[in-house]
């Protein structure tokens, strides 16, 4: 069901050569970009009319309007299963507890007497958030996007999720209920690239946003790439992935269940076990079959994901070598199930989120750890972070210098301006001192 890659002995290379040996899903955003371009431009020119036509084409339902009526949000919350409501409320509470601590405060640095630089943090004015609605329904993604935006102080928050024919063209009611719980009343029935285009350009019913965040399929990723530079984005999210670094102390039942839990997202989902224990590898492989047989989404998601080129059991000589592999892989989710897992986790450089030991599975982070589950994929964890309050804040430097403070450094500014052959830069300093640069004290 799952392949093996043996990197023991001399088979473990360095740098890019190691990355090339590791399993990864094929995810060609550039090819998808050409297909979403006309869709995005149609939304640009026809606005809501285009969104309604695309909902009929892609979602199989003809909408009367794109914006969800307030009454539908209220009704969805009233009809929500009490157990689901309680779980969402706890998820929101924990997410707020973590994200509230991320907000940065204004800080002033006194560079010299009379000269200071203040960095203040200003939230993005308006954001468009996306909650997928294809193979599964993700109210948890509503929580993970809305909470950090709210804690950052974003004033205008809108959310889009695909229209559902089953629910008369509204997004899934659990999505709507989550929005109502969070106080988000601006919700649109729009999916995929059309939702990103709606937020980027604005339409008759939806004002344009400064930023779009949220996970989605390849069409969402391609639309984000198309609008890069026009709007801010969180990331071009690819297929989800889990890597587990484990030794012979790990429980194969736990490891197998965690690999399966990620595989059930999508046939392109990646499940990777990195271990120095052949015995554990054998036990996990043996454990996969009965656990897969006992769950749902087997033929359309789990088996294709586990047997695909993006999933594998990777054998290494030891934990040091395993760390080299997981750092090269840069997993969206990385579980450490080894002896002294905390110390091992502290040595990891590249991961979207790290889950330590047997009692912190990825599923916990998906819903109720308090951490954010919108994380970098496709190896992007080597340079990017997951969604947080910082994603919605902009740092602005405020420079405040007195005449004496400028005079003290004026000759250096003029010297550097002339070294760069930008004499007008230097002249802007000289003009303030009667065209004679003060001598340094």
Question: Explain this structure to me?
Answer:
The chain is of the alpha/beta class and 441 residues long. The chain is 44% helix and 17% strand. The strands form three sheets. The protein has a six-stranded parallel beta sheet, with helices on both faces. Strands 6-5-4-7-8 form a five-stranded parallel beta sheet, sandwiched between helices. Strands 2-3-14 form a three-stranded antiparallel beta sheet. Helix 6 links the parallel strand 4 (126-130) and strand 5. The model has no long low-confidence stretch (mean pLDDT 96).
Give the overall shape: globular
Please tally the helical runs, counting DSSP H or I stretches of 4 or more residues. 17
Strand content: 15-25%
Distance between the termini: 75 Å
Overall pLDDT metric = 96
Question: Which residue ranges are poorly predicted, with pLDDT under 50 across at least 5 consecutive positions?
Answer: none
Strand pairing plus helix content: what structural class?
alpha/beta
Biggest β-sheet description: 6 strands, parallel
* Largest sheet strand order: 1-11-10-9-12-13
Helix-residue proportion:
40-55%
Radius of gyration: 26 Å
- According to DSSP, the number of beta strands is 14
List keywords for this structure.
441 residues; alpha/beta; five-stranded parallel beta sheet; globular
Describe the secondary-structure layout.
Layout: E1 3-6, H1 15-21, H2 29-46, H3 48-59, H4 70-78, H5 82-100, E2 107-112, E3 115-123, E4 126-130, H6 139-152, E5 156-161, H7 173-182, E6 187-189, H8 192-201, E7 211-213, H9 218-227, E8 232-233, E9 241-246, H10 252-263, E10 270-275, H11 278-293, H12 298-307, E11 312-315, H13 319-329, E12 331-337, H14 341-346, E13 351-356, H15 362-367, E14 393-401, H16 403-419, H17 423-430
């Amino acid at each position: 069901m799952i392949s093996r890659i043996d990197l023991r002995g001399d088979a473990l290379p360095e740098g890019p050569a190691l990355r090339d040996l590791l399993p990864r899903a094929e995810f060609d955003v550039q090819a998808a970009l050409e297909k979403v371009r006309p869709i995005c431009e149609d939304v640009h020119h026809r606005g809501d009319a285009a969104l309604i036509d695309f909902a009929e084409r892609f979602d199989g339902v003809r909408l009367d309007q794109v914006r969800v009526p307030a009454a539908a949000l209220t009704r969805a919350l009233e009809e929500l299963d009490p157990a689901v409501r309680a779980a969402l409320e706890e998820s929101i509470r924990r997410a707020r507890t973590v994200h509230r601590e991320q907000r940065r405060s204004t800080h002033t640095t006194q560079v010299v007497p009379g000269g200071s630089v203040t960095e203040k943090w200003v939230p993005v004015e308006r954001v468009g958030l996306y909650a997928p609605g294809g193979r599964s329904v993700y109210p948890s993604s509503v929580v993970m996007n809305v909470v950090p935006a709210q804690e950052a102080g974003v004033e205008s928050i809108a959310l889009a999720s695909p229209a559902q024919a089953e629910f008369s063209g509204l997004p899934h009611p659990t999505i709507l209920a989550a929005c109502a719980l969070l106080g988000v009343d601006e919700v649109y029935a729009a999916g995929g690239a059309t939702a990103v285009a709606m937020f980027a350009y604005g339409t008759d019913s939806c004002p344009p946003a400064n930023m779009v965040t949220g996970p989605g399929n390849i069409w969402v990723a391609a639309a984000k790439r198309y609008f890069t530079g026009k709007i801010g984005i969180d990331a071009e999210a690819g297929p989800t992935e889990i890597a587990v670094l484990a030794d012979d102390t790990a429980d194969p039942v736990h490891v197998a269940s965690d690999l399966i839990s990620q595989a059930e997202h999508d046939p392109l989902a990646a499940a990777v076990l990195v271990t120095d224990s052949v015995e554990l590898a054998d036990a996990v492989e043996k454990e996969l079959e009965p656990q897969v047989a006992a769950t749902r989404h087997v033929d359309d998601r789990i088996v294709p994901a586990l047997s695909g080129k993006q999933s594998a059991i990777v054998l290494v000589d030891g934990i040091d070598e395993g760390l080299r592999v997981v750092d090269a892989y840069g997993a969206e989710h990385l579980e450490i199930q080894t002896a002294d897992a905390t110390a091992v986790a502290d040595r990891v450089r590249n991961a979207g989120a790290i889950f330590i030991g047997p009692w912190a599975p990825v599923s916990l982070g998906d819903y109720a750890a308090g951490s954010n589950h919108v994380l970098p994929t496709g190896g992007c964890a080597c340079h990017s972070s997951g969604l947080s309050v910082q994603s919605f804040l902009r740092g602005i430097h405020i420079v405040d210098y007195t005449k004496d403070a400028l005079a003290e450094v004026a000759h250096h500014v003029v010297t550097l301006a002339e070294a760069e052959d930008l004499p007008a830069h230097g002249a802007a300093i000289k003009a303030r001192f009667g065209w004679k640069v003060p001598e340094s004290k």
